[in-house]
Amino acid sequence: MSHHNHKLHEGDSLKEAARDRLTAEGEQWTGMREAVFEALASFDKPASAYDIAEAVSKAEGRRIAANSVYRILDLFVGANLARRVESANAYVANKHPDCLHDCIFLICDTCGQTVHIDDDSLSGSIRKAATNAGFSAPRPVIEVRGKCGECDDR
Ligand SMILES: [Zn+2]
Ligand SMILES: [Zn+2]
Ligand SMILES: [Zn+2]
């Protein structure tokens, strides 16, 4: 992996990094966007737009439509604040909004727990192979399904 200041944020530090990243993109960090980000970050598993809408509705004390949450999640994915876990059809907060990687997800088939790793040499090889095959701007999606350590112990 290339040498850079790779930092995984948690809690307030994650929220600040996300806000800084979004405003650097020229987008506003509105109350609604903050509420969606907080809800997203509060899940310890990938969450669907519907799950997040439920959590935001509860926190705000009013009904928030999944559609408006979906639009915000789309914006977050584009700005590197969130990642889509394709095989789970759900989203996770990106713990490193200030640096870009092709995040790799390991998803437990039993409990849904998702582990996130970054290995640019792995995704770089896939990117290179795709480019060699004539693909332009390939976007590697690397997701591994299996059993997490906890479920394997049972
Ligand atoms: Zn990094
Ligand atoms: Zn990552
Ligand atoms: Zn598990």
Please, could you describe this protein's structure?
With 154 residues, this protein is α+β, with helices and mostly antiparallel strands. Helix content is 45%, strand content 14%. It has 6 helices and 5 strands; from the N terminus they run ααααββββαβα. The protein binds zinc ion (3 copies). One zinc ion (ZN) is lined by residues 108, 110-111, 113, 148, 150-151.
Instruction: Tell me the number of helical segments per DSSP (H or I, 4 or more residues long).
Output: 6
The percent range for strand residues is 5-15%
**Structural Rg:** 16 Å
Shape: globular
Uncertain runs are none
Ligands in the structure? zinc ion
Mean pLDDT: 94
What series of H and E elements makes up the topology?
Answer: HHHHEEEEHEH
> Sheet bearing the most strands, described?
3 strands, mixed
* Helix share, percent: 40-55%
Annotation, overall tally of beta strands: 5
Secondary-structure-derived class: alpha+beta
| Order of strands, widest sheet | 4-3-5
Compute the separation of the termini in Å. Answer: 34 Å
